[in-house]
Amino acid sequence: MSLFHGKTAVITGGSSGIGEGFAHFLIEEGASVAIVARQPDKLARVADALRAKAGEGQSVLAVSADVTRDDAVERMKSEALGAFGHVDILVNSAGVGIWQTIDQMSPNDWRAVIDINLNAVFLVTHAFLPGMLARQTGHIVNISSVAGKLGFAYGSSYCASKWGLLGFTRALAAEVRDKGIRVDTLCPGTVETPFKNSPAASPIRLEVDDVIAAARYVMTLPRQVRVDDLVIYPT
């Protein structure tokens, strides 16, 4: 039987990059999947590809939403729960980078990075966590970065957001560990995706499939085994 047969998943940033990779991984492993992103045309393309892979009993939902907005997250939650009834897996993969020195960066650009990379993770998790707590089961996977472990020039907002995400994830994991809910963070190095990489990006890059292989490892560990901040480096 497939790894996630009968499970349901919501993936932010699901129209490209790591989020799209997660969507294909989970649909191939038997889950029903909701992908969330801001651009309807990209969502439709990925949703069509996922539906072509879906088996009996699996469904695919595409929701165009800005996950930095409370009202959009509430609408997305209603659509996902209306389609699936409950959510077993949440992948927070939406992300953005703006690469400027601190003196050049505008307050609006700073807020934009913090909003999507950190605040949106809180909003989406806050939306689906009560259902997981009620059912005493669930798995949340947050996509951070090696930038959450170090600092580099032109990356102040991105590093701050990813460091914050690690702290958020560890705190959440401690809160829900005894309630049947697992929370993990993946910290990949430079990945070959449409994401605009920083000037400090490595010329040696991971593929999305490398990140998904690490995710498979984390998501299939025994319940009593915990991994903090799995860092994934290209070699």
Task: Report what the structure shows.
It contains six helices and seven strands; from the N terminus they run E-H-E-H-E-H-E-H-E-H-E-H-E. By secondary structure, the protein is of the alpha/beta class. The protein has a seven-stranded parallel sheet with strand order 3-2-1-4-5-6-7, sandwiched between helices. Strand 6, helix 6 and strand 7 (230-232) form a beta-alpha-beta unit. Helix 1 (17-28) crosses helix 6 (208-219). The protein is globular and about 50 Å long. The model has no long low-confidence stretch (mean pLDDT 94).
Count of separate structural domains: 1
Name of the CATH first level: Alpha Beta
How confident overall, as mean pLDDT? Answer: 94
The CA-CA distance between the termini, in Å, is 33 Å
Question: What global shape is seen?
Answer: globular
Mind telling me the CATH superfamily name?
Answer: NAD(P)-binding Rossmann-like Domain
Our count of helices gives: 6
Radius of gyration computed on alpha carbons = 17 Å
The strand count comes to: 7
CATH architecture: 3-Layer(aba) Sandwich
Main sheet overview: 7 strands, parallel
Work out the strand percent: 15-25%
**Uncertain spans, ≥5 residues at pLDDT below 50?**
none
Q: Helicity level, as a percent range?
A: 40-55%
Keywords:
235 residues, alpha/beta, Rossmann fold, 7-stranded parallel β-sheet, 6 helices, 16% strand, globular
